[in-house]
Specification:
The complex is a heterodimer of chains A (679) and B (312). Chain A is mainly beta. Chain A contains seven helices and 40 strands. Chain B has a seven-stranded mixed β-sheet, with helices on both faces. A six-stranded parallel β-sheet of chain B has the order 2-1-3-4-5-11, sandwiched between helices. Classes of the chains: A mainly beta (679), B alpha/beta (312).
């Protein structure tokens, strides 16, 4: 027994001495340190795996960061989009901001897909997102990625001319609280609380935002009814608005929940039908929630299923014509509309690394969209316009739209292949099948070639589609315009070529050419009432150029220029209301750690009229904005002051012919002061 | 009766004290150190940095440790911001990446980032010390042991050290040496690579490439090279201590000292910014005498301008 114990002890001693020796050797040589440093590298490489950079993205792309947003004094999403090449913003008669992209301005900006953290916020009634979200607060935006060009091969409907993806801040970016309060011209006040905290494995971030303004008011000399006695012109336009925004992001391990709520009440700028009004109130509520689960099945295979629910409530009161209109309507023409829209969707995206440098993305999506709870009351007959003594309920007899359901089934496939270290190829295709029209298949091919150091060439080919909106399909019992349930989607074919070059470490420039051909456009015909029809097309080509010189420490200069030649394919008339030439110039100076100054100028050439409109073109304009930031005077405290339209330039956005002859006047010089505190 | 002289004297003393305090407050330059993890290599850098800062009247306010986790970077950055240092020293790629991502208004000096170009640490507020020694100096060091050699082999993963090869290729050629490259994308390919290279090369250059050098593969590379009497030349002395023939590399403490020197230079600038990425200003040739003996090399006649360390 003693012998056995001795042997065991000797063996243990030997084992221990070997183990000790090997660990001491590793410790002594520092090899363990080296492997620990290698592990560190892997952590960084995997953490930095994020959306492609502008250079590597198979699209013509702009990225605007939170810092730029702050430096330029932007307050809303639409302010940010003004500096994007190829984008042009103008306002319609209701006060809604509409985005023209690459020469095409259409109702409700429905040819642009807008996403918040990958979740679409385009509403189905109009097809666009700007009615509800043109004034989206920017306080919680980390960056905005804008694809100028079609994106239906990945994003489906409405990704026709551009895709705007808004990436919000999370706990990594906030970690605490930030309170922002601002006030300025037109009795504007804005309060924002941004928060982010990690509680164990649970990450919570979001914001609350309250905005209230009287808005700018301008004298309208003549509205559509002028010189009729009942016309309120000359009179003042209105822009009062009150809005509440809430955002919430929760994540625990692989599960993420996103939620948004927005409620807005505002006046009608001039009024529906271009008649000055006093009583119209536009009320909108939008909310969504999305559950995403990130599943890593192996090193090469990842799956991201998500389910989501969206609800949009539209509940406006319209004063279409003022009291005494035509001597027939003593109470004017007024109406109350209401509908609710619900979307339930499911999407599963699978990413598979076929081999090093080649990643396959495959996805399935299903969406159920339902329009219901329709209410309609009016004090005139919806079809004959006969005067009625009181507001009468037409919900059941002559509703303005109807209950409708749309199912969308889609699948997509994309392969991103880094063929050599200098050549990337992306090939993708998506097929969408809608309830009311045959399926549409949209491919795209993108080739990026870094042909010399610091320079790249992009060649892009794609098609995209815009599904008809519910308004275009189901608007009914209306004496002015009606929908058409048989509409087909609009289609676009695009070719783009882009060249980018980093001249030095501090200076870069890019230029790209695009050619778009649109067919099956959805337009109103000339019948009475007018009806939406597929007809005609457009041909647009142009050049976008960007240049930026960054000298460090927040000192930079930038400029961009867009030339866009857009015409109808049928009669070759120039597309109206969008300038042929426009651009932006800006300078930012980070004088020292205490101050930052920014001067940005939006330049626009004349905006042409539609064919047959004899008014002279809307003149060229230059608008200058200035922003000063004071920081680091007091811990975690910042003050920002901005002056918009610094030189009080008088300018107008285009009104259709035979409506408001002198167009829609825009705001003169205005200012805001903002205080921000982090804790 | 109040003595006016005394009152004046007290006032002068108070004023002088105030002036001195404000001068000190103005003159005091502070730095915060963030290291990626608690390893001996990084601690040696901190030690060198502390010594040199002390000489240069730079106060180290805090030393933070990321513990190898990127997640806690945000919290540490918040703490750093509250401390308002004049400069930040980031040790290791984790720390350098965290501060690069979150801080753009305070000058940053990074060091101990292997192959820094891979992590794009170029910003207007970032200065760095490369871990790589200029290829000409490496070759000079290796040639001082081996004499003139013709074929230098290298195994590398293009996604990790491809840029080091691209930058060195021309300079190696200019030195009259033929670089025999072997690309791999998985550490499993190391044995195949060694089989292919052995016999075609006079020496093997071992890069700090995590696909090539793993806990498993290093032993294999070392023994295969030795069996075939192929000198193993490295960019870090840790491999020499573990059995490779030689390396040309910097000393961690010296890197810390150099970082403090750069911090001082940045603070002297009227507008603190970047001084770019610099090579280590001091480096040494390390030779494993046992390995040299096994390879049959004569070390007595080595003539080299740089410092030589013999191990063991």
């Amino acid at each position: 027994m003693l012998k056995f114990n001795l042997i065991v002890f000797s063996l243990l001693c030997l084992l221990h001495s070997n183990l000790t020796h090997s660990s001491v050797q590793a410790e002594e040589t520092g090899l363990e340190d080296m492997f620990a440093i290698f592990t560190e590298e892997e952590i960084v490489v995997s953490a930095l795996k994020r959306p492609r950079t502008v250079l590597k993205s198979p699209a013509i792309m702009s990225v605007i960061t939170a810092k730029q947003i702050k430096q330029m004094g932007f307050r809303t999403l639409i302010d940010v989009l003004k500096i994007v090449p190829g984008f042009y913003i103008s306002m319609d008669e209701t006060g809604e901001r509409e985005i023209a992209v690459r020469g095409v301005l259409d109702d409700a900006s429905q040819k642009i897909k807008v996403l918040i953290d990958g979740h679409s916020i385009n509403d189905v009634w109009r097809g666009g997102a700007m009615w509800n979200f043109d004034d989206l607060p920017v306080e919680n935006i980390k960056r905005i990625e804008i694809i100028r060009g079609p994106g239906s091969a990945l994003y489906g409907q409405n990704a026709f001319l551009a895709v705007i993806d808004i990436i919000t801040k999370d706990t990594e970016d906030i970690d605490g609280f930030q309170v922002t309060t601002s006030g300025g011209s037109f009795s504007t006040q804005n309060y924002n609380l941004l928060f982010g905290r990690e509680l164990g494995g649970l990450k919570i971030s979001g914001f609350l935002d309250y905005f209230d303004t009287q808005g700018f008011s301008k004298k309208i000399e003549q509205d559509v009814l002028f010189p009729a006695a009942a016309s309120r012109s000359p009179g003042q336009s209105q822009n009062r608005k009150e809005k509440t925004d809430l955002n919430l992001r929760l994540s625990y391990n692989n599960l993420e929940v996103k939620a948004k709520y927005m409620k807005k009440r505002r006046k009608d700028y001039i009024g529906v039908g271009d008649a000055l009004n006093e009583e119209s109130i536009l009320r909108d509520t939008y909310m969504f929630t999305e559950f995403t689960y990130k599943l890593s099945l192996s090193e090469k295979l990842n799956m991201t299923p998500k389910v989501y629910y969206d609800q949009y409530n539209y509940d406006p009161f319209f004063e279409q014509r003022p009291d005494g209109h035509l001597g027939v309507y003593p109470e004017g023409i007024k109406g109350q509309l209401r509908f609710k829209q619900r979307t339930i969707g499911f999407e599963n995206q699978v990413n598979y690394k076929l081999f090093e440098g080649n990643e396959l993305t495959f996805g399935l999506q299903y969406e159920w969209i339902h329009q219901h709870d329709i209410k309609y009351g009016k004090n005139s007959h919806p079809i004959t316009n006969a005067n009625l003594t009181t507001v009468t309920d037409f919900t059941h007899d002559l509703p303005f739209t109807r209950k409708a359901t749309r199912h969308i089934y889609a699948f997509y496939l994309q392969d991103e292949w880094n063929i050599t270290k200098d050549i990337d190829l992306t090939i993708g295709v998506r097929h969408d099948r809608f309830t009311r029209f045959e399926g549409t298949t949209n491919p795209r091919v993108g080739l990026i070639w870094r042909f010399i150091e610091d320079a790249h060439l992009k060649l892009l080919l794609a098609t995209a589609f815009k599904a008809p909106s519910f308004q275009e399909m189901f608007l009914t019992n209306n004496s002015v315009k009606i929908g058409n349930p048989s509409l087909d989607p609009e289609k676009i074919n695009t070719f783009e070529i882009g060249l980018g070059y980093h001249f030095t470490e501090h200076m870069r420039a890019s230029i790209n050419y695009f050619y778009n051909r649109i067919r099956d456009k959805i337009i109103l015909d000339t019948a009475t009432p007018k009806q939406f029809q597929n007809g005609g097309g457009s041909r647009i080509h142009g050049i976008e150029a960007e240049w930026k010189a960054d000298f460090g420490n927040d000192n930079y200069v930038f400029a961009n220029y867009t030339f866009q030649d857009a015409e109808d394919t049928r009669d070759r008339n120039r597309l109206p209301d969008v300038p042929v030439h426009n651009g932006n110039i800006g300078i930012n100076a980070g004088f020292c750690k205490y101050t930052n100054a920014n001067l940005t100028t939006h330049l626009s050439g004349p905006r042409p009229r539609e064919d047959g409109d004899t008014r002279r073109d809307i003149p060229a304009q230059a608008l200058v904005n200035m922003t000063l930031i004071g920081k680091n005077f007091i811990d975690n405290f910042e003050v920002r002051g901005s002056v918009f339209n610094l030189f009080d330039k008088s300018y107008y956005d285009p009104a259709p012919q035979n409506t408001v002859p002198t167009d829609y006047p825009q705001q003169g010089r205005s200012f805001t002061i903002e205080l921000r505190y982090q804790f | 009766m109040i003595n006016k002289t005394r009152i004046y004297l007290v006032l002068i003393i108070i004023l002088s004290a105030l002036l001195h305090c404000s001068y000190c407050a103005y003159a005091e330059k502070t730095v915060v150190v963030i290291k990626s993890q608690d390893i001996s290599a990084y601690n040696k850098v901190v030690k060198g940095f502390q010594d040199e800062c002390f000489k240069n009247d730079i106060t180290i306010k805090s030393i933070y440790d990321l513990n190898g986790k990127m997640k806690i970077g945000q919290k540490i950055v918040r703490k750093v911001r509250k401390e308002k240092p004049d400069i930040i020293l980031a040790i290791g790629v984790l720390a350098a990446t965290v501060v690069k991502e979150k801080i753009d208004d305070i000058p940053i000096v990074f060091c101990m980032v292997i192959n820094h170009a891979r992590f794009q640490l170029m910003e207007s507020n970032i200065t760095g010390i490369s871990t790589e020694i200029a290829i000409e100096d490496q070759l000079k060091g290796f040639q001082s042991i081996l004499g003139a050699f013709k074929n230098l082999g290298v195994i590398y993963d293009p996604s990790k050290t491809g840029n080091i090869i691209a930058n060195a290729e021309k300079k190696i050629e200019d030195a009259g040496i033929n670089l025999v490259k072997y690309e791999i994308s998985d550490s499993k390919e190391v044995s195949e690579a060694m089989k292919n290279l052995i016999g075609k090369i006079d020496a093997l250059w071992l890069l700090p490439d995590s696909t090539v050098v793993t806990k498993k593969s290093f032993g294999f590379i070392k023994s295969t090279a030795l069996e075939n009497r192929t000198p193993l030349l490295c960019t870090s002395d840790v491999f020499v201590k573990a059995g490779a023939l030689a390396s040309v590399s910097s000393n961690h403490k010296d890197v810390g000292k150099q970082a403090a020197g750069l911090a001082r230079k940045i603070l002297e600038l009227s507008m603190p910014g970047s001084l770019g990425i610099v090579y280590p200003d001091r480096f040494k040739l390390t030779i494993n005498t046992k390995t040299a003996e096994k390879l049959g090399l004569e070390l007595k006649e080595i003539k080299n301008g740089t410092k030589i360390n013999f191990y063991p």
